[in-house]
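Exercise 7. Given the components listed, write out the predicted structure of the assembled complex. Treat all entries as one system.
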Amino acid sequence: MKKEENEKEIKMSVKFSRIRILETWYNSGPWNMALDEVLMDSVNQCIPTLRLYGWHPSAVSIGYFQSMDEEVDVKNCKHMGIDVVRRITGGGAVLHESELTYSFITKIYPQNIIESYYWICDPVVICINKLGFDAKFVPLNDIIINNKKVSGNAQTRKKNTLLQHGTILLDVNVEKMFSVLKVPSEKVKDKMINDVKSRVMGLNKTFEQVADNLKESFSEKFSAEIIVDNLTVEEKENTKRLVTEKYVSNQWNWKR
Amino acid sequence: MVNRRVRNIHKSKKLIRVLLEYDDYTKIINSITITGDFFLHPEESLDELEANLIGTKLEKDAVKQKIEKCLNHSEAFGFDSESMTDAIIGCLCGIKLRI
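Answer.
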């Protein structure tokens, strides 16, 4: 076996002794994004963190490179009580509502970006298939069932730490999605709604069903014991501070 | 000196939006903001690219060269130097905005 192939095999078959599980349930968009950033600082060198969460109130997150004003009908979001927040990861705008969101934070990971997406999406695919579906990973960052997207994923790397967060859709409300996301013109709106309806699907399972399977799948994939844990006082305080200083600020959310 | 403010939307594998100000006489870029649903690692490379494009002439070769130099150590998904160049140069026939 060539040296590079051998290295690839090693990277893809990484095993962890333990995975720290955080079930943080439903929180606001700014809090959710702040905690992901905090966890990148607090993650253990050898024990990755898997966080499972939802959004309350519902929120629209935009990709790091997107423009809030170009992508989101902020006025309508306010009217509907929907949070808006910029992510630290790239990709597109997402309405977070009926979904389970996960974050996986690790200091040990394949350096190749496509490989690392595959590496982390694999247990997500396993989880979905345990629920009776035939899902597969499609590079760069999607998971599909019968050509319909059921999960979108995004990652960033900072200070030798990788964060990947992703959605697993439970249900899809395309009309609501297009009432908060801007479309190029009203003329094409109906066509876009029908297009998304034919290309996106939810699992129609409960948050708990997906969460239980996801924990099990990550444990199997990495041969790791799962340790259900709570946030430390320091993590909670740092999250609170980061919400105020960054994730509710116009300076961050309207950065572009 | 006539400062023109224009924007362009370019569909590559992902969508690239460019908001640009340039001198209509010299065709030199005075400011530029690039947004879109693409991925770029490290993310800060885009700030660096925007800063480096200021002062560049709006000509295909000059812009492409700058992009390739700035993103030499970065990994982009959803666009390449060719499509980013097209997105920027496309501003010349993009929507003119009132300053």
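Discussion: Residues 113-130 of chain A form the longest helix (18 residues). The first strand of chain A starts at residue 18 and ends at 27.
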